[in-house]
């Protein structure tokens, strides 16, 4: 800091995203502005949590004896509402960094959605935009703050627009603020209702009753009074709590706006004691697929907040929100200790088991609610099939699939409906259900009424790459290795016999020899297909090769090893039958079999121009032009 910045006011621009967000907030006509207060109280509560945590190692920070608390002060004469906390506070740089940029990745992706969406305003209500929400109700905001343990007070102020000012606090500011942050909102004309005490009480009881720290309303007349219950809800007994209490707790803890689809509240006693209050949301957050895959369950030790990134659940359960409050862990546990702590590992294991058990029982007792969770988070839960070997069977049983027989099918249902002599569970991976439904690799299965799982999530290509079985029935890809449906009867045996008589098929050995000779290195083998009934050809991976969908996905990321596929041909197809006797055209026909199989798999032929010219020539010759 230069001598200049220490004594004078400075203007600074907002990060471009903040300016954009503020512009959107000011210009959208959004009716549910109440959320601004919830956001400010939630920040104030986080600041009190941080103070209590830092004070474990540095008790001096709280030596003045003021307990962490939050005060709300309306001032009708000035048209201003203040939210004041005695939490950790911010120094100059923290004010600049925290209130001038958006670090939160969820907010960033929310912002891009907000800009794209026609009804951006509707989205504001669904997702927190934190501190900046205050600009919906205020045309000027002044934040005065003192970092706990420091001498200086700093004042951040802004009227929205493109930037803010930062200046050292006055003597009067220094007297008033001994620790923490005061946020003064100069309310817009149409937001003056927030100066009424009943409005403030209404919002606090709706959104912030579960905040652990006391929230005090300081009215213009009369004594200050506490307006929240300030208890750690997870420590209370289940019988005292109503569904509404849980809903509010979920919203307060998770900073969410939806309703929880699942609530898990219990106390573990025994080798370790801890309270657990966890929720599964009913809607998907925007940052679910962030590469960091961080969980959001908060760790408390004896009611003191410790960390919200302690990986208390495996990454595939990162959508679960809530709190775990341990009685036994040391309060001064450091971040490094969190990672290797055996007690925490035990808690993690036990709680993971409980969450999965709860999902299981929900899937049986309240399938519609479970479906909601599966629709929002199924693609994340499936990461566990790949990562959590121990619980793979349980997770497979939980999984729901779109199949050729219907939607939301479980493997239990699949196995109950197996066809005569069917001993395997079949699946096909690809980009969309519609594309998969028209994939020729389904033909022979369809002719036998065999159900096939249609897997379209990117993660499906990964978990299916490890050998898996369900109830002793192996899962098998229809685009990989040999499939033998020989023992499974056709739905319509007779018509197949007729077809066989009409079309006895090509000379297998001669045809395969011609195609192999033509395609050479382009394929690893050419085989007569068991999969096809009406299409001429398809591409499959070898028995130990990677599934074609995974191969394609890796190739997109330049991680493919380029294993060559096997070309399967339908010996009864007239095009295939024509090859052995087609002398001059045999070469073009062979290429065409390969290229149409590539197109049906959603790939481009290696040389699209050559493909088009080959096709044109064959058509012209067919038309004898
Ligand atoms: N009252 C406060 N005391 C101390 N720090 C604060 C306070 N209010 C905000 N901050 C700091 O400013 C940062 C940004 O706040 P903001 O509300 O925009 O986002 P957030 O709380 O981090 O994320 P989100 O609201 O999206 O969950 C906070 O992370 C915190 O570091």
TrEMBL record:
Stretch list, region C: 553-625
Chief localisation class: cytoplasm
Segments of this protein annotated with the region A: 1-335
Keyword Transport: no
GO cellular component, one term: cytoplasm
SMART domains listed in its UniProt record: HATPase_c
Domain Histidine kinase/HSP90-like ATPase, chain residue ranges per copy: 32-191
Gene3D superfamilies (UniProt xref): 3.30.230.80, 3.40.50.11260, Heat shock protein 90, C-terminal domain, Histidine kinase-like ATPase, C-terminal domain
PANTHER family named among the record's database cross-references: HEAT SHOCK PROTEIN 90 FAMILY MEMBER
Family: Belongs to the heat shock protein 90 family.
Subunit structure, as described in the record: Homodimer.
Record's protein name: Chaperone protein HtpG
Protein species of origin: Bradyrhizobium canariense
């Amino acid at each position: 800091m230069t001598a200049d910045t220490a004594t004078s006011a400075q203007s600074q621009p907002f990060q471009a995203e903040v300016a954009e967000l503020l512009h959107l907030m000011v210009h959208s006509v959004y009716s549910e502005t109440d959320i601004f207060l919830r956001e400010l109280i939630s920040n104030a509560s986080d600041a009190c949590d941080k103070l209590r945590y830092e004070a474990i190692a540095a008790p001096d920070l709280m030596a003045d004896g003021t307990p962490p608390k939050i005060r709300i002060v309306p001032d009708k004469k000035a048209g201003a509402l203040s939210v004041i906390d005695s939490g950790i506070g911010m120094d100059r740089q923290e004010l600049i960094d925290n209130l001038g940029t958006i670090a939160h990745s969820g907010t960033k992706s929310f912002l891009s959605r907000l800009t794209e969406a026609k009804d951006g305003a509707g989205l504001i209500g669904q997702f927190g935009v934190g501190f900046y929400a205050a600009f919906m109700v205020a045309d000027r905001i002044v934040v005065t703050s003192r970092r706990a343990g420091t001498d200086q007070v700093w004042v951040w102020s802004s009227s929205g627009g493109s930037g803010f000012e930062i200046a050292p606090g006055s003597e009067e500011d220094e007297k008033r603020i001994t620790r923490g942050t005061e946020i003064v909102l100069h309310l817009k004309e149409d937001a003056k209702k927030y100066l009424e005490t009943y409005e403030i009480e209404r919002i606090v009881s709706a959104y912030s009753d579960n905040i652990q720290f006391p929230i005090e309303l300081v009215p213009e007349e009369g004594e200050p009074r506490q307006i929240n219950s300030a208890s750690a809800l997870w420590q209370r007994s289940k019988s005292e709590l109503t569904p509404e209490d849980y809903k509010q707790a979920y919203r307060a803890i998770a900073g969410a706006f939806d309703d929880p689809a699942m609530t898990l509240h219990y106390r573990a006693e025994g080798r370790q004691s801890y309270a657990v209050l966890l929720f599964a949301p009913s809607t998907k957050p925007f940052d679910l697929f962030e590469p960091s895959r961080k969980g959001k369950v908060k760790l408390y030790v004896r009611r003191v907040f410790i960390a919200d990134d302690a990986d208390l659940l495996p990454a595939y359960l990162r959508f679960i929100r809530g709190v775990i409050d341990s009685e036994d862990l040391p309060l001064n546990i450091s971040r490094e200790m969190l990672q290797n702590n055996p007690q925490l590992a035990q808690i993690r294991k036990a709680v993971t088991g409980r969450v999965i058990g709860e999902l299981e029982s929900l899937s049986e007792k309240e399938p519609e609610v479970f479906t909601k969770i599966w629709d929002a988070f199924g693609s994340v839960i499936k990461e566990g099939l790949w990562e959590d070997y121990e619980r793979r069977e349980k997770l497979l049983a939980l999984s729901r699939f779109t199949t050729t027989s219907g939607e939301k099918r479980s493997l239990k249902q699949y196995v109950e409906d197996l066809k005569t002599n069917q001993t395997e569970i079949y699946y096909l991976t690809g980009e969309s259900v519609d594309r998969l439904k028209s994939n020729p690799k389904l033909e022979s299965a369809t002719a036998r009424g065999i159900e096939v799982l249609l897997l379209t999530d990117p993660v499906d290509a990964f978990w299916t790459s490890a050998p898996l079985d369900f109830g002793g029935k192996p899962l098998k890809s229809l685009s990989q290795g040999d499939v033998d449906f020989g023992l499974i009867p056709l739905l319509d045996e007779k018509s197949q016999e007729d077809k066989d008589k009409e079309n006895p098929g090509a000379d297998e050995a001669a045809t395969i020899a011609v195609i192999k000779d033509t395609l050479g290195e382009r394929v690893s083998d050419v085989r007569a297909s068991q999969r096809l009934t009406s299409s001429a050809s398809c591409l499959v991976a070898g028995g130990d090769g990677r599934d074609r969908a995974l191969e394609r996905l890796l190739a997109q990321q330049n991680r493919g090893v380029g294993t060559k596929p096997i070309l399967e041909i339908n010996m009864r197809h007239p095009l295939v039958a024509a090859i052995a006797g087609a002398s001059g055209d045999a070469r073009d026909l062979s290429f065409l079999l390969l290229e149409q199989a590539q197109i049906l798999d959603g790939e481009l032929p290696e040389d699209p121009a050559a493909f088009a010219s080959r096709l044109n020539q064959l058509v012209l010759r067919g038309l004898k032009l």
